[in-house]
Amino acid sequence: MSPRTPSRPVGTVTRGTTNPNRLRRMDRWIAATHGAALRRAADPVAVDLGYGAAPWTAVELLGRLRAAAPRARVVGIEIEPARVAAAKPYEREGLSFRHGGFELPLPSPPTLIRAANVLRQYDEEQVAEVWARLCGRLAPDGLLVEGTCDEIGRRHVWVALGPEGPRTVTFATRLGSLHTPSDLAERLPKALIHRNVPGEPVHAFLRDFDRAWAAAAPYASYGARQRWIRAVRDLAADWPVTDRPGRWRQGEVTVTWGALAPRERPSG
């Protein structure tokens, strides 16, 4: 017997702020790293969860995924009925919109769930429950990508999770706008943003990244991209960086979740 679907959508309404191209860095990373899984899937469904007051991010996700997986379909899911009604005119082959929340009102498990800027308004203590609920809805080869970005997508940090839980954390930026890597701290996802304090791994990571960036200053004469690549190369000597220079050139770096996971807080 399938799990009972809640009578009401699970979650709360977000502010709904969105802009065209805001999630391009996340989308391109997903297409590059998860495209093969989407191509293998019998029914490659991707969910744009909490797409907001306008449907631009779902429309763009479809185009970017289809460049890597031509059979991909996107379902935009929103907890606010008026937003679903406003998005309906944009439906077309491969793109639909539904009313719902974290319960994901779909007939079968999706291959991808993208939840961008959704958990920012929640308490840190609620994140693990939401992650577990969403990961439990994934297809066996599925991926949940949950993170936060600024209003025009220049700075973005996201966590990638499989059915078993969190795997990696990716930092992505428009390099021309970056002063130091720790500028990205303001866009840490909810699971990490309150942990950017001394004694926590994410704080140590950003500290070391800033030091590597400073040491790579001579490479700035060749451009911000070369400086970033050199800084990440040095950072990888002490931190478990999982990606390669091809991704670094995009202004990205990905690290294992275990290296940045919050420390357990004392009880009592």
TrEMBL record:
Listed SUPFAM superfamilies: S-adenosyl-L-methionine-dependent methyltransferases
Domain of life the protein comes from: Bacteria
InterPro entries linked to this entry: SAM-dependent_MTases_sf
One MF term in the entry's GO annotations: methyltransferase activity
Keywords from the named record: Methyltransferase, Transferase
One BP term from GO: methylation
Annotated region (Disordered), positions in chain: 1-20
Secreted is among the record's keywords: no
Coiled-coil portions: none
Protein name (Swiss-Prot/TrEMBL): Class I SAM-dependent methyltransferase
Organism: Streptomyces xanthii
